[in-house]
Design a protein that fits this description.
266 residues, alpha+beta, N-terminal domain of MutM-like DNA repair proteins, Helicase, Ruva Protein, domain 3, 2 domains, four-stranded antiparallel β-sheet, 7 helices, metal-binding, DNA-binding
Length: 266
């Protein structure tokens, strides 16, 4: 599932491609991927200028000239592609937004969705979402205060979107590997130095993921940024740990396949 770095990459690449352009046509191939009747969706979206694209947690918000918003959550298996009909992947697009002869394809929206909402409805959707970990106002002191009030295991806490926004299964593994902490370690057992280190490495890994374009497939034909991030530990069961060369192990934690090094994570 795309996480904060992937959605931030999509946002930064899409803004210069389609920001300020008019949506000339909407094609809906799967009505369950939207939240209103197709006729209503098309009436409110077609011929509207796409003013800006924003990210919150694992969501993108496409803001239209008429004040409406398109809220995207790709969920498991979802992706986007921008280009013409000859370049797009050989997969069914559940939704397509056209900008003349170029199109933004939303692919794999079996669990994901593109919902038409007002700004107030978007704000309501986000009312329980936690802090953005890369926000300059999210300080080490704030993180310490939050951690001091938490119980439970590290992996479960990092996955909790009401605690911190945008971290999912992949990057939680990456963060904990870099911090040399086991995913099932209990938060009250962390000392001050470990909490401080976790904060710094959480931000480092998320920044690195963004800088290297996350792990998704390219957004458009000549996109040489998206997909540059190589996982250090996630989905590498049995491979040598990049730090100590012990084999990476996989264990189910919080109903998620979790990857870690049992030798150098403590």
């Amino acid at each position: 599932m795309p996480e904060l770095p992937e959605m931030e990459t999509y946002k930064s690449l899409l803004q210069p491609l389609i920001g300020g352009k008019k949506i000339t046509e909407v094609t809906i191939n799967r009505e369950k991927s939207i939240n209103v009747p197709i006729s209503q969706f098309k009436a409110q979206v077609e011929n509207q200028k796409l003013e800006t694209i924003q990210r919150r947690a694992k969501y993108l918000i496409f803001k239209l000239q008429n004040g409406s918003c398109l809220l995207l959550h790709l969920m498991l298996g979802g992706k986007m592609f921008y280009g013409d009909e000859h370049d797009k992947p050989d997969r069914t697009a559940q939704v397509r937004l056209s900008f003349g002869n170029q199109h933004l394809y939303f692919i794999g929206l079996r669990l994901g969705y593109l919902h038409l909402l007002s700004q107030e409805m978007v704000d309501q959707e986000f009312q329980d979402i936690g802090f953005e970990p890369l926000n300059p106002n999210f300080s080490l002191d704030s993180f310490r205060d939050m951690m001091n009030k938490k119980r439970g295991k590290l992996k479960s806490t990092l996955l909790n979107q009401e605690f911190i926004a945008g971290i999912g299964n992949r990057y939680s593994d990456e963060i904990l590997w870099h911090a040399q902490l086991l995913p099932d370690k209990n938060i009250p057992d962390l000392d001050v130095a470990q909490i401080n280190n976790l904060y710094e490495l959480m931000r480092y890994i998320l920044h690195l993921g963004i800088q290297q374009g996350g792990y998704m497939d390219p957004l458009y034909k000549e996109d040489n940024k998206t997909g540059g991030y190589q996982m250090f530990v996630h989905n590498r069961e049995g491979e040598a740990c990049p730090r100590c060369h012990a084999p990476i192990v996989q264990k189910e934690i919080s109903s998620r396949k979790t990857y870690f090094c049992n030798n150098c994570q403590h």
